[in-house]
Amino acid sequence: MSRLRIAGVTKRFEGADGPLTVFEDLDLTVADGEFVTLMGPSGCGKTTLLNVVAGILEPDAGTVEFDGQPVDPGELPIGYVFQEPRLLEWRTVGENIDFALKAAGVGPEERDRRIEAWLDRVGLGEERNSYPKQLSGGMRQRVGLARALAIDPELLLMDEPFSSLDEVTARGAREDLLDLWSETGTSVLFVTHDVAEAVVLSDRISLMDENGAVFEELVVPHGRPRQFDDPEIHETQAELTRLFFEEVE
Ligand SMILES: Nc1ncnc2c1ncn2[C@@H]1O[C@H](COP(=O)(O)OP(=O)(O)OP(=O)(O)O)[C@@H](O)[C@H]1O
């Protein structure tokens, strides 16, 4: 059953050259514990859609429901991992996570427990009192992931979270994400431009065209764990690339 149901959603912006319709009458679902990835050309509206789901932006039409109820960001714990981790530079790593937990209404003792547990879980147990600028890009991104997961999200939104990392660090981060995802069973809506990443991570991939319309959905036909170098994975990547360029070029 779908947990997240985006139905008939339209979003317009007032652009410099008049109104801009980013997407219109868009439908998308994410089932319980499913990992769904959204791919599409730059500017087609992927971040805008995540922001609508998160309640940061109001849609002009349509509904976003979770478990059959309209999404209320004050009620539904949604973890959001951005391309850049957006850490508060003047607060320690632990305080950055504490800030999110406080906002989610978690009490002090439980906050302390979760900060400890999640920093350990992402391999940063020693860094609780460090400041973000003392960490590498990969470590900062892991703080962002710990912060998103610490609130025990029902839904995890991820916007190109590994695109600023070098490939070796990104592979480690993707493995960590898959481990955490399988442990927590969270439903994930993920955005990437990286075809290989999409195939290795996702249960299902939705392709958007430059007009913000979903024109294809690919169910990834492989069990887990998956290896980047597996020839079958390469075949699916090639198919995804073909589907994408046939439509978008
Ligand atoms: N607040 C805003 N006001 C006006 N236009 C906006 C606003 N936010 C986004 N847009 C426009 O909406 C369109 C979709 O932007 P969005 O960032 O969602 O695309 P995207 O698919 O995430 O792109 P990318 O892959 O480059 O991150 C773009 O044309 C963008 O310029």
TrEMBL record:
Keywords: ATP-binding, Nucleotide-binding, Transport. Pfam families: ABC_tran (PF00005). The keyword ATP-binding applies. It comes from the Archaea. InterPro entries: AAA+_ATPase (IPR003593), ABC_transporter-like_ATP-bd (IPR003439), ABC_transporter-like_CS (IPR017871), ABC_transporter_ATP-bind (IPR050166), P-loop_NTPase (IPR027417). Residues 4-236 form the ABC transporter domain. GO terms for molecular function: ATP binding; ATP hydrolysis activity. This is ABC transporter ATP-binding protein.
